User: Fold this.
Amino acid sequence: MSTSSKGAARQTAFLFVALIAAIATGQWLFAQGGSISGFWQLAGDYLLVRPLQMLVIPIVFLSVACGIASVGKPATLGRLGLGTVILYVLSMLIAASLGALLIEAFAPGVGVAPETRAALMQQATQDFTSDATRVQRMQDAQSTGVGGAWLNILSQIVPRNPIKDMVEGSTMAAIFSAILLGLGLAAAGDRGKPALDLFQSLLAGVMHVIGWILWIMPIGLFFFVTGVVAKIGLQNVATPVLGYMAVALAGLAIHAFIILPIYCSVFGGGNGWTLLWNLRRVFLTAFSTSSSNATLPVTIDSCIREGGCSKRATNFCVPLGATMNMDGTALYEAVVVLFLFQLFGVDLGFSEIVVVVLTSVLAAIGAAGIPSAGLVTMVIVISAVNATTAGRGIEPLPIAAIGVILGVDRIVDMSRTVVNVWGDCVVAKIMTRVAPDEPEAAS
Ligand code: ASP
Assistant:
């Protein structure tokens, strides 16, 4: 084992111990009752989330620009870009269909007594309206609907002012301007070389900074997860909601442990289960932060060091995937929306379920890689189904119904983020065949 992989193995062990200790401490604090001081999450924020987030825009911009410029050849770039996007969309479609299939098969929302439903809805409305910013964001998403979701994605792909968008943290703007600049630098040949060298040396520096941050991460993770668990604890949850949660978690597990490893092998990425095991450090980080974006520095580091992915494929696929590829979120959107319609006694037909699957993929692409993003874009799916059921004279499902699942959303968010990030790694591994490193760049 090389020194660097020994270091990575040690980091993984520290993260694991920190996670277990945090869950135990958080649950103990929760059991003590009373209000939990904000100290835990604040400390975790400064030691885990902020240090990672701080690096996201620089690393996205530099890695994508270097990745593109170093591939250079237009034919390879075309295959890399097109292949990645097709593999991303296909895996999200599979995930959303799996979610739809499971929730329709187990139907935890069907046949709920009217009084239970009324009590759930009352609690849901209360929970839903407790966060004014979220309500506002959901209402915005509802008023613009599916068309607005496309426009939102488009406006990030073609930003008016990429610098301003990047300053505001838009990873999509960073990706697309880096793709363009990378292509430009490659086309400029020798004249583009000094800039590319500068970017590559900056990227090497940023990767070292990541290496340092990774060592303090277990401490940050301990504080952060303790704060989260102390706040939510293992609550008493209504039975239908437990049913929903079981289906969502089972779906995520099937996708992660069975479908994605098979996907990896079928498309030439080698043994998916070995890859899954080798990348466990990434999953611990994704689970703890609930954010694909915050996990990004670890994902890149780990795919290259432990996953055997090429730098070229990783630098392109992983940042793009953190923003657009969310298998876990697509599955979750389909499961929640179908569950809520079941709960409210609306029997959806096959074509309406297809609408759910397709819009779930769109909502997942549109969701940012941050905690609870999928919750907000779910409004797009509900609005699309409401629009189709309106034709049958059915009352629309109120958006506040989302409140039914709010109480358990954090745990589902942590789990779906793991699946989101895992999907990116699988595609990076598959694409390594299309864009391998030059022998000298593989060090
Ligand atoms: N938290 C998820 C992520 O960062 C997005 C979501 O809310 O589904 O990947």
User: Anything to note?
Assistant: The mean pLDDT is 86. The chain has one domain: 3-442. The pocket of aspartic acid is lined by residues 290-292, 326, 329, 367, 369-374, 413, 416-417, 420 (CB under 6 Å). Residues 3-442 form a domain with the Proton glutamate symport protein fold (CATH 1.10.3860.10).
